[in-house]
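Q: My collaborator sent me two sequences in one message, no labels, and asked for predicted structures for both. Can we handle them in order? The first one she listed is below.
A: Yes, handling them in the order given. First sequence, followed by its structure tokens:
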Amino acid sequence: MTVETVIAVGRSALELTIALAGPVLLFGLVAGLGVSIFQALTQINEITLTFIPKIVAT
């Protein structure tokens, strides 16, 4: 095998790996960001909701 053949095989292997793993990784990224945003938003809402009973009690 020549150097060019090894480089071509390695390149095609990397392209195939990216093509197969890319959609799965992209979906995981989007899902993770969605969950993180949801957690951040609900945390803010929980903090504001804890003040409502204190305001009503006074």
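Q: And the one she listed second?
A: Here it is, processed independently of the first:
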Amino acid sequence: MLKRIDPEKFALSVVSSSSAISDSPEAIAKEKVEIYVASYKEAEDYNRTVVKANRLEDHKKFYGEK
């Protein structure tokens, strides 16, 4: 069974591991916010896929492979 990931923890991890390209604090903050939002959404999308895959796996276990 696939595991879900915590979107907030994932996004914070991605932000903390990414380097900013900009020089000004405002531009750096904007980059980091964009990275956070994109990472959070990506984790949510992944979790939706995991839920579907897990349901399909449970269905196959219950009814058998077809």
